[in-house]
Design brief:
It is a single chain. The chain has 74 residues and is mainly alpha-helical. The protein has two domains: 1-28, no CATH class; 31-74, no CATH class. Helices cover 58% and strands 0% of the residues. It contains five helices and no strands. It starts with a helix and ends with a helix.
Length: 74
């Protein structure tokens, strides 16, 4: 939680504290594939939105983030 506050994601941290009973849902492994695909589509189809690049908060750890991201950059 302290790391989240330092990184400017205090709202997310407050949400997690309030949703303590649902924390097991938050701890499941999910990937943002569908979201990133739609973001890439918007980037191509609507340049006026000026989508430059997504920012990832690696709460699952950098290793998991890089394992997910590396094949997509190849």
């Amino acid at each position: 939680m302290k790391y989240a506050a330092v990184c400017g994601v205090g709202n997310s941290a407050r949400f997690i504290r309030k949703q303590a009973l649902n924390v097991t849902k938050l701890l499941t492994v999910n990937t943002p594939d569908a979201f990133v695909e739609q973001l890439a589509k918007l980037h191509t189809e609507k340049p006026e939105l000026k989508i430059a690049a997504p920012h990832f908060y690696p709460f699952g750890g950098f290793d998991k983030l890089f394992d997910w991201l590396s094949p997509k950059l190849s």
